[in-house]
Amino acid sequence: MHRVAAVVVPPVLSFDISIPFMVFNSVPHYDVRVCTARPGPLPTVGGPDVVVADGLDALDGADTVLAVGSGGEQAPPEVLDALRRAAAGGARIASLCTGAFVLAQAGLLDGRRATTHWGLADDLATRFPSIEVRPDVLFVEDGGIFTSAGAAAAIDLCLHLVRLDYGAAVANAAARLAVVSPVRPGGQSQFIETPLPPERGTSLAPTRAWALEHLDRPLTLADLAGHAKISVRTLTRRFHAETGLSPLQWLLYRRVDRARELLETTELPMDQVAGKSGLGSADSLRKHLSNRAGLTPTAYRASFTRRG
User: Fold this and answer.
1) Same structural domain for residues 166 and 17?
2) Are residues 87 and 224 in the same domain?
3) Domain that holds residue 224
4) Quick check: 308 pLDDT over 50?
């Protein structure tokens, strides 16, 4: 049996605590224990208390040790000491979501690449400058230490660990039992939305609405200026003032959004998706979607299709 010990550091989501059980207990080769510095009722963020019976001695002899929770707050010294001992003893060390802060506080990520939830990645990089923080991946491994981004990415990391231990067939079987996607590569984007800046004016709103209705056309600055009945120079100035973007930047964002919608909701071939979204060709679609979401169109459709 491969022993997995998940050390929980509040504040923590109850969902995060459940992930090791959901993944590893679906495989008959693992023994999973959850522990904390102070056994007993453990409050969770926005959920009921969870009773954790085991203390930090559960880490002794564990083959894999997971740091779970913390929300970026300081972990108890005894937890950090226990993690250092486990690492020195040869245990495989990993963190789920903000558990990366716990590993960082223990000094286990010094000089390594690591990730965490994208919303706290800047905080991790600022507080621990010796870490090369990767905010744009699902999970990363460096020197035998694994860190994951938030929520579903933590499931991906656990499935990856199963694959390392027992192969892809076992890992994909675990994914099916948990009713989640098969193992995704760690370098895949966390799918951070790159939000458009808030609009600060409405004088060009009719032109933007018209452009959205004609994204399949090769719109130019002259086309937009002609619709707005102003000069190209005035269009560019007002567009940036109202949207924070140039007209062509705004168009590209909207074209990629339209392509994503078509990939999710239709079975159109890639060249038709590119044409209807105004991206021109399948190669152009691949380039811009990969830049925006970190996935090829085929992989994006497989992951996000919403057809009934």
Assistant:
1) yes
2) no
3) 205-304
4) no
pLDDT class of 306 with cuts at 50, 70, 90: low
In a shared domain, residues 158 and 210: no
Phi first, then psi, for residue 126 (nearest 5°) are: -70, -45
The answer to whether the CB of 239 falls within 8 A of the CB of 247 is yes
Cβ contacts of 238-245, under 8 Å, gap ≥ 24? 238/201, 238/203, 238/204, 239/204, 241/200, 241/201, 242/199, 242/200, 242/201, 242/202, 242/203, 242/204, 243/196, 243/197, 243/199, 243/200, 243/208, 244/196, 244/197, 244/198, 244/200, 245/196, 245/197
Residue 28 maps to a domain: yes
Rg (CA), the chain: 24
For residues 23 and 152, membership in a common domain is answered with: yes
- The pLDDT tens digits for 209-241 are 999 999 999 999 999 999 999 999 999 999 998
Based on the domain organization, do 260 and 149 belong to the same domain? Answer: no
Residue-wise pLDDT tens digits, 246-268: 999 999 999 998 998 899 889 99
Beta strand extents in 165-272 (DSSP E only): none
Does 1 or 100 have the greater pLDDT score? 100
Q: Looking at the structure, do residues 14 and 90 belong to the same domain, yes or no?
A: yes
Q: How many domains is the chain built from?
A: 2
